[in-house]
Design a protein that fits this description.
This protein is an alpha/beta fold. The chain is built from 19 helices and 14 strands. It has 4 domains: about 5-135, Rossmann fold; about 150-315, 3-Layer(aba) Sandwich (Rossmann fold); about 315-390, Orthogonal Bundle (Helicase, Ruva Protein, domain 3); about 410-450, Arc Repressor Mutant, subunit A (Orthogonal Bundle). The protein has helices at about 15-25, 35-45, 60-70, 85-95, 110-140, 150-160, 180-185, 205-215, 230-235, 255-260, 290-295, 300-305, 320-335, 345-355, 360-375, 385-395, 410-425, 430-440, 445-450, and strands spanning about 5-10, 30-35, 50-55, 75-80, 100-105, 170, 195-200, 240-245, 265, 275, 280-285, 310, 345, 380. The strands form 4 sheets. The protein has a 5-stranded parallel sheet, sandwiched between helices. α3 (about 60-70) links the parallel β3 and β4 (about 75-80). α3 (about 60-70) packs parallel to α4 (about 85-95), α5 (about 110-140) packs across α13 and α17 packs across α18 (about 430-440).
């Protein structure tokens, strides 16, 4: 996004003239003000993409102006200028919302560079807004992102099975979003006005799980001083999710099978049965057919649960959704934590895309919450990501040249890039600044790529 209209604010006329000439000569529409109060009148009368202001001025200093701009023109990018001795004030202005600052005296190309960096930031923000729109557009049900063919198929099945009372077995690795799919089925069903109750069968001790599911009568066991409703009764007229169903003890499985087949349960210690109207969904990260073969899970219960199977793919098989999921988690955690939302730098995004995500979507969410908290700049950089991601990336070493017959453009580009960097470092005797100039890269980008390709520290 280009910054076209710029307001210069400085009490020194020579500074205003120089900046006006330089910026006008590069296609910007420029107006100037001699102090903060005049600048506020300009901002009230006209829209400006950017404000370049001194921090020390009569009547209203730059810090006060920055705070006012945040109120009356919040979309304007503010850049402050500071002479020697006023850098602390410039830093205060940045804390108040200024994007960057220039130290006086400065060269014309420094001003242009800062503006171009600001334009790049605005471009990233626009891309960020586009991603948010994509999130909303691709939001299937209950906040599920479905860009990959496999997840679109999951949502297709969810939409088909939701209206019925059919039992659904949701399978997938830990962290893939099985409970999210279960909630989507509930929300799309005629039962959505009823309760959605979820229980992790592996988190309840074996001796307590029957009472948790079915309740108990008064005096059923030591400590049962009153009768207690179980989760089946809590979920009456709604949906019950039995998460990690593979952890359910074998002795309890006949009782669950009876509840599914007959639609009734019996509290522990009670002689009478209670009718319940509950739709049961089950989730597992195990291969239940293999558990059946090994005698660890009842075959009849497995078939009763597995009326419709939904298989969630791991995150590593859904690369189309990674950047959208990442931006959603950043937005969610920034709002929850009360801190500014941040972009993901290209280098950090490359690390995320290379990682295999053994913990799937849950691991991605945790990694981005950590990165959001630890990042100090306006972007999330690689050093804010977990150490194991960075180490795995650096350990990969320089890419070998693709074998003959390999027509992958991406692999060829990586091999060529690594070779050019190696040759530039050799030509400059290891001087990275000069090598970056030869390669037409920023020193920061070069350092990242040196680490990426394992070309030495």
């Amino acid at each position: 996004m280009a910054l076209r209209s710029i307001l210069i604010v400085d009490d020194e006329e020579p500074i205003r003239q120089v900046l006006t000439e330089v910026l006008s000569g590069h296609g910007y529409v420029v107006r100037a003000a001699s102090d903060g109060e005049e600048a506020l009148r300009e901002l009230a009368a006209h829209d400006y993409d950017a404000v370049v202001t001194d921090v020390r001025m009569p009547r209203m200093d730059g810090l006060s102006l920055v705070r006012s701009v945040q109120q009356i023109a919040p979309d304007a990018t503010v850049i402050v200028m500071s002479a020697y001795g006023s850098h602390d004030l410039a830093l205060e202005a940045m804390k108040a919302g200024a994007y960057d600052y220039l130290g006086k005296p400065f060269r014309p190309d420094e001003v242009l560079l800062v503006l171009r960096k600001a334009e790049e930031r605005e471009r990233l923000r626009a891309e960020n807004r586009r991603l948010r729109r994509e999130i909303e557009a691709s939001r299937g049900h209950a906040g599920i992102i479905a860009e990959s063919p496999s997840m679109k198929e999951v949502l297709r099945v969810v939409g088909k099975v939701a209206p019925a009372k059919t039992t659904v077995l949701i399978a997938g690795e830990s962290g893939t979003g099985k409970e999210l799919v279960a909630r989507a089925i509930h929300e799309l069903s005629p039962r959505n006005a009823g309760p959605f109750v979820a229980v992790n069968c592996g988190a309840i001790p074996d001796q307590l799980i029957e009472s948790e599911l079915f309740g108990h009568a008064k005096g059923a066991f030591t400590g049962a001083q009153t009768a207690k409703r179980g989760l089946f009764e809590e979920a009456d007229a709604g949906t019950l999710l039995l998460d990690e169903i593979g952890e359910l003890p074998l002795p309890l499985q006949p009782s669950l099978l009876r509840a599914l087949q007959e639609g009734e349960i019996r509290r522990v210690g009670d002689a009478r049965s209670i009718k319940v109207d509950v739709r049961v969904l089950a989730a597992t990260n195990r291969d239940l057919s293999q558990e059946v073969a090994q005698g660890k899970f009842r075959e009849d219960l497995f078939y009763r649960l597995n009326v419709v199977a939904v298989k969630l793919p791991p995150l590593r098989d859904r690369p189309e959704e990674l950047s959208i999921l990442a931006q959603r988690f950043i937005a969610q955690h920034a709002l929850r934590l009360g801190i500014p939302e941040k972009e993901i730098s290209a280098e950090a995004l490359a690390l995320l895309q290379e990682w295999r995500w053994p913990g799937n979507v849950r691991e991605l969410e945790n990694a981005l919450e950590r990165a959001l908290v630890l990042s100090e700049g306006v972007e999330i950089e690689p050093d804010a990501l977990p150490e194991e991601m960075r180490n795995a990336h650096q350990a990969s070493g320089p890419p070998p040249p693709p074998p003959e017959g390999d027509l992958s453009v991406k692999r060829a580009q990586r091999a060529l890039e690594a070779d050019l960097i190696r040759r530039a470092l050799e030509r400059t005797g290891g001087n990275r600044s000069r090598a970056a100039e030869l390669l037409e890269l920023s020193p920061r980008a070069l350092l990242y790529k040196i680490r990426e390709y394992g070309l030495g520290e």
